[in-house]
Specification:
By secondary structure, the chain is of the alpha+beta class. The chain has three helices and three strands, in the order E-H-H-E-E-H. A hairpin with a 2-residue loop joins strand 2 and strand 3.
């Protein structure tokens, strides 16, 4: 099942770990694990880690996706 893009906001939204976890309905720990395992792409700016929502969704869809409601 594919993950859909967010209904609000433009594509290419840059999110924190907390924000992306909330949008995907998973824990921040899951986001951390996916990042460390190379499942999802991320942007590192010095000590900050951010996620491009559209790229994360595309990566998860390629991996097999999550719930359709996500």
């Amino acid at each position: 099942t594919n993950i859909t893009s967010p209904k609000e906001g433009p594509e290419g939204v840059i999110l924190t770990s907390k924000q992306i976890a909330k949008r995907l309905a998973v824990s921040e720990r899951t986001i951390f694990n996916w990042r460390k395992m190379g499942v999802i792409p991320y942007i590192k700016l010095r000590s900050l880690v951010r996620f491009d929502y559209a790229r994360v969704v595309a990566a998860l869809n390629q991996e097999g996706g999550l719930d359709e409601d996500t």
